[in-house]
Amino acid sequence: MPLRSASPTPLPGPLCVEMHMLLALSGRGCLVLHHAVTGGRSPCAHTPCAPPAPTGPKRTLSASGSQPSNGPEPGGQPLKTRTLSGMASKTTTTITPKRIAHSPSLQSLKKPIIPKEFGGKVPTVIRQRYLNLFIEECLKFCTSNQEAIEKALNEEKVAYDRSPSKGIYLNVAVNTLKKLRGLAPSAVSSLSKTSGRRVVSHEVVLGGRLAAKTSFSLSRPSSPRVEDLKGAALYSRLKEYLLTQDQLKENGYPFPHPERPGGAVIFTAEEKRPKDSSCRTCCRCGTEYLVSSSGRCVRDEECYYHWGRLRRSRVAGGWEAQYMCCSAAAGSVGCQVAKQHVQDGRKERLEGFVKTFEKELSGDAHPGIYALDCEMSYTTYGLELTRVTVVDTDVHVVYDTFVKPDNAIVDYNTRFSGVTEADLADTSVTLRDVQAVLLSMFSADTILIGHSLESDLLALKVIHSTVVDTSVLFPHRLGLPYKRSLRNLMADYLRQIIQDNVDGHSSSEDAGACMHLVIWKVREDAKSKR
Ligand SMILES: [Zn+2]
Ligand SMILES: [Zn+2]
């Protein structure tokens, strides 16, 4: 492990080797099926081979470990088609180069050793690895080596003492590492007014605190001034990153139906709607359940599910699939309970779509660049839009509204949507209203940025093909069907932690994150071209 580096440090082995166990358990086909047509296949005629993907419109399934030289990566989303992404080679060559920091590092320090503990709850080697990572982080902000070592030892001890098991230790240790990274000067910054998220200037991210001290700084005065890339110049740069028609298709973006007005087609949709429309498969727990013609559950049945992803962790003597929410083994009864089962259903009702249209531009204006993110809640029909946020290239929110779904809500999905009953209580904005606003705001040539934006466009029922998708721009090292999570991309590339608390995500936070990532990427690439 290159310890003498100011770049994000990789996490130790056990967390870098996660694999989505569903693949191993059930084969890709099954996994893909769950993801692609959750709630849409013939559930009653099918014996689920594994619980489906955890719930949520854009939940990321754990797929693998980290990118070769980057930080924590418990994320990846199975999609449908495996493909070689055209961006893959570009991306790997433009990752922030590791700088050689001319400052104290572990190699020149007398490294404290965790004493061997016979039969300890956490293997010493794991503790040692985290201790080393903690020290490395502490060195970045402590004033002396001794202080860094003491702080790291203390943090490691607290993590160990707090954790009754190895699984919990790993979680606590990762959080400690994130906390320490947040303490490092490169991540200390003001709060963003629009999103409440810490926003770090790109120069600080790229240069870091050590930039001032080292001759290898990326933000030397002689560096090209790509920070000024804005407006039409940014637009023309971004055109190089647009999804191709093939990429739009393999990522499940909606296209206009060739005959049916308002209809859409998805090229990754696998199965037709089941003949027995009263039978559904819960997209959270995999249980089959019956609904009435109104979409209501026929029987009162609670839904026990795991909200966390399944991942493969190395344990003594082999591998074990565990849910990240509770560290329970794959297939175990869910650790969360909801009132009822739910379905996605977005790919079953491909009607009511609108398409962005061509518009004349005046003067030297460009067609616009926006990032977009949606939140969805479960209704009697499935996942429906309940919030949408659009941000501009300055990461200012230009449109943010709660949306009242057409059908009755059965589960606000608050953990993932952040949307609560109170949020929607006074909302009368409908999906049609939102579509009208977006069609006036965007043209067919407007560049829309998002993470797995197809998911948002399906919820919005908007067809748009001028897209930069961060899940494609920063591909998973295993390629599709895996995708990296937005959260992990932010941690890796911008060293920002998107909070993943029980209050749920925020569409303004996620949209802002996508905009930050894309602009960061464009500027990085612009630098390396010169
Ligand atoms: Zn769980
Ligand atoms: Zn369920």
TrEMBL record:
InterPro entries reported for this sequence: REX1-like_exo, REXO1-like_dom, REXO1/3/4-like, Ribonucl_H, RNaseH-like_sf, RNaseH_sf
Gene Ontology molecular functions: exonuclease activity; nucleic acid binding
GO terms under cellular component: nucleus
Main subcellular location: nucleus
Chain spans, region Disordered: 40-95
One Pfam assignment: EloA-BP1
Domain Exonuclease: 368-527
Keywords attached to this entry: Exonuclease, Hydrolase, Nuclease, Nucleus
Compositional bias ranges of the Polar residues kind: 61-70, 80-95
Tagged with keyword Mitochondrion: no
SMART domains according to UniProt: EXOIII
Keyword Metal-binding assigned: no
Subcellular location: Nucleus
PANTHER family named among the record's database cross-references: RNA EXONUCLEASE 1 HOMOLOG, RNA EXONUCLEASE REXO1 / RECO3 FAMILY MEMBER-RELATED
Protein family per UniProt: Belongs to the REXO1/REXO3 family.
Record protein name field: RNA exonuclease 1 homolog
Lineage summary: Eukaryota, Metazoa, Chordata, Craniata, Vertebrata
Gene name of the encoded protein: REXO1
